[in-house]
Design goal:
Blueprint: H1 9-13, H2 21-35, H3 43-63, H4 66-75, H5 77-80, H6 98-110, E1 126-132, H7 134-139, E2 141-152, E3 167-169, E4 178-183, E5 186-191, E6 200-202, E7 214-225, E8 234-237, E9 253-259, E10 266-268, E11 271-279, H8 280-285, E12 287-291, E13 298-302, E14 311-314, E15 330-337, H9 344-357, H10 366-374
Parallel strand pairs: 1-9, 11-15
Antiparallel strand pairs: 2-7, 3-6, 4-5, 8-9, 10-11, 12-13, 14-15
């Protein structure tokens, strides 16, 4: 009898001896897809593919197991077989590793496996877009939100049946939730298409949810919007999203905040900014000006010689920090107003002012007052 020597396992998978576990898995996946028997037609091609597929499986079973790979590297094929029981025994089949790779391949070829219809699944996350007034974002508010979502049916407790007697064992899969199919030289379990993997059939549906196990309803939530929240921020409300399939846990609710623009104020961090128009006389000589704040009007003193775009601050009249450490200021940008229409007397007085200031009187009319503007810029 002639004994044919086995090929080197590394050569079989087309990898180096220094290949990582991930490299071994990638090589196996590629070859398993290439030589899967069900992808080949004709008796000769299918038989050749089966032999190659067995060879690939054997190589992967050894090289994906650290202990077996170590023995193989030291003693060759004889060392690899020590303690091995043949087939899938002693490998990671069905416990991750080898089984995970096979499941990936089965998903590609046969649409996946497992009892999906019976597995509890986490519900979807939801997002609610909440528009706030400028003041509400600064000082916070208690918002009432109406959230439409899927919830577990309370009448049937998520079973989908009117009573316990309304649940029958699936006659197709006999309650297992899976059907076994022969694929090539091995068998595959797939979800039962009759009960969708649940193992049960609803013979008497719950009238509230009509057998869907969940109901679509609106829920009122009270949400505390923190003072100082800024546009673009999101609040996360854990477990307030949709309830999952098959009594799975609920997802989360995210409240996305936008803020309406204010006709007077803008926001820069925790500071509230506004423009304050003052006459050039007030800017030059100083004076008091009434300005708006979010808490009502107040009087501020404009120092003499204040320049255009000078920023004055009112401490503590800005937005509070979300961290609760401090509060911003109200920042007032001085905007000096230059009169466009002057009486003859006003022009005369300004001309005297110009002479006293050493300004040239070569230009008259509007050109002269344009120069006056630059005096405050």
């Amino acid at each position: 009898m002639v004994h044919v020597a086995k090929r080197d396992y590394y050569e079989t998978l087309g990898i180096d001896r220094s290949a990582s576990e991930d490299d071994v898995k990638k090589a196996f996946r590629k070859l398993a897809r290439q030589f899967h028997p069900d992808l080949h037609s004709g008796d000769h091609q299918k038989k050749t593919a089966e032999e190659k597929f067995k060879e690939i499986n054997e190589a992967y079973e050894i090289l994906s197991d650290q202990e077996k790979r170590k023995r193989y590297d030291m003693f060759g094929h004889a060392g690899a077989q020590q303690g091995a029981g043949g087939g899938f025994e002693g490998s990671d089949f069905g416990r991750g590793g080898f089984g995970d790779v096979f499941n990936d391949i089965f998903d590609d070829f046969f649409g996946g496996g497992g009892r999906r219809g019976q597995r509890a699944e986490r519900g979807n996350d939801l997002q609610y877009n909440l528009e706030l007034a400028f003041e509400e974002a600064v000082y916070g508010k208690e918002a009432k939100l109406k959230i439409p979502r899927w919830e577990h049916c309370q009448d049937c407790k998520g079973t989908g049946a009117r009573t316990a007697a309304g649940l029958k064992i699936c006659a197709t899969c006999k309650g297992v939730g899976q059907l076994r199919f022969q694929q090539g030289f091995f068998s595959i379990n797939r979800p039962c298409n009759q009960c969708e993997g649940a193992g049960q059939m609803i013979s008497d549906p719950c009238p509230a949810c009509r057998g869907r196990k969940r109901v679509y309803k609106e829920r009122m939530l009270s949400v505390s919007i923190p003072a100082g929240i800024e546009p673009g921020m999101r609040l996360r409300l854990a477990n307030e999203g949709e309830h999952g399939e098959n009594n799975g846990p609920p997802g989360d609710l995210y409240v996305a905040v936008s803020v309406k623009p204010h006709p007077v104020f803008t926001r820069k961090g925790n500071d509230i900014v506004c423009d304050v128009p003052v006459s050039f006389i007030t800017a030059a000589l100083g004076g008091k000006v009434e300005i708006p704040t979010l808490k009502g009007n107040t009087i501020i003193k404009v120092p003499a010689g204040t320049q255009h775009d000078k920023a004055l601050r009112l401490k503590g009249l800005g937005a509070p920090s979300l961290k609760g450490q401090d509060t911003g200021d109200q920042v007032m940008k001085i905007k000096i107003q230059i009169p466009t229409k002057l009486t003859a007397k006003q022009k005369e007085l300004l001309s005297e002012f110009a002479k006293e200031s050493g300004m040239s009187m070569d230009e008259e009319g509007d050109g002269f007052f344009d120069k006056m503007k630059t005096l405050f810029e």
